[in-house]
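Our preliminary data section would be incomplete without showing what the modeling component actually yields. Below, a chain of 195 amino acids is followed by its predicted structure, encoded as tokens that our downstream tools consume directly.
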Amino acid sequence: MKKLTFLLLVVVIGAVVLGVWGLRKTANTAEAAVETTQQTKVAVERANTIDGATNPELIPDSVAYSLLFDLIAKRETEKEKRRIKAYIKEVGLSGADVDVLIASAKDFRERTSALDTQAASINIRTRTNPPPVLTQSQVSQLRQLETQRNLIVESVAAILRNRLSGSGSEKLRRHVNERVKRKTKIFSNETGGSQ
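Predicted structure:
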């Protein structure tokens, strides 16, 4: 009887140990699966990202100039306007070149505001939690708007370079390449567009 009780006790303890070990193994497997999923997500995000800090040459001029023009043109108050003029002077521009850059940025904003409004309306309609996938029609519309916006920024940038002084044009080009592009990241979504 003692042997049978002892055997039964050993079997019960063994079952408990195996059960705990199995639960730990299952928990470790689940944690590993979650970690692998997160690592895969990070890897995909990195693969779909252009980081200007490491590859500034991969950031298109149209993106960099668009960011610069938006930064400058969106200043409304006197305090904001003084700050943006100080920023432009840090770029190395002075005198008439400052005014030319500000006027070009305002021109860009005026010419792109309708496009930006259209793009925002498409994005607002698709903002839910979780966000739905854009339809082919919406993707097509956004790409057309992006193409139109890029044509405008390229036109405004070309006119700007011609209107700036020789040294002003060179200083602005250097600033865009060495500072704006290096602080820019472009994220591509699954539909192939950029965000």
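Helices lie at 2-47, 61-73, 78-91, 96-125, 136-163, 166-180. The radius of gyration is 29 Å. Preliminary results of this kind motivate Aim 1 of the renewal.
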